[in-house]
Design goal:
By secondary structure, the chain is of the alpha/beta class. The chain contains 7 helices and 10 strands. The protein has 2 domains: 111 residues, TIM Barrel (Alpha-Beta Barrel), CATH 3.20.20; 95 residues, no CATH class.
Length: 220
Amino acid sequence: MRKNLALAKWRAGQSTIGGWLSLANTHTAELMANAGFDWLCVDMQHGLLDYGDLRHMLPAISTTDTTPIVRVAGNDPKDIMKVLDAGSMGVIVPLVNNRAEAAAAISALCLLMAANGAVHAAGALAVGVCGAYGYGYDYRKVTDARAAAMKQCVGGACKIVGDIRRGCAALAIDAKHPCGSFGWAINSHLGKAENASLKRCYEFGGRDCVVRAWACDEKG
């Protein structure tokens, strides 16, 4: 499962720039996806787009790091689940006017997560000497996430320092002395994980601490 970069930015309190697609054309979708947008929304509420068009447009967008989002025609659980099954990484639900209607939209998402076994939420962070690190995220098992993190960590004395469950991990090092002080942290919010890792780096003697790496579990 690839990273939802737009979601990661929102969780970090950052702004994003997106585009809108209402033409049933895969070439347009791919061209827009390569234009540098953080996300693209395929509009199925207005225009002539149907599910068959969507099945081709979403893969075209996903050839890049741009996050594909779909605005469905209405607050129908069937439509919401279908666009997620097709590869959308976010859904805009129109015609929500009260709490009950909002709850119905959320229920559709929860139902899909349960049906898919929302277990792609195991991650791990490995840290070594001189800024070496590795991470794994969105694995079914913690053991697999740990193995991926250790495999990615190139350097001496690498070890697993924490597991990621519905959250984010961050590693900070001293930019001028990468083999010196460092700090790491895991938190449900990316910004808080980064701040905590920087704080620990300074507490252990760092003077020019910077965030070297971060990772968020998709379900975090």
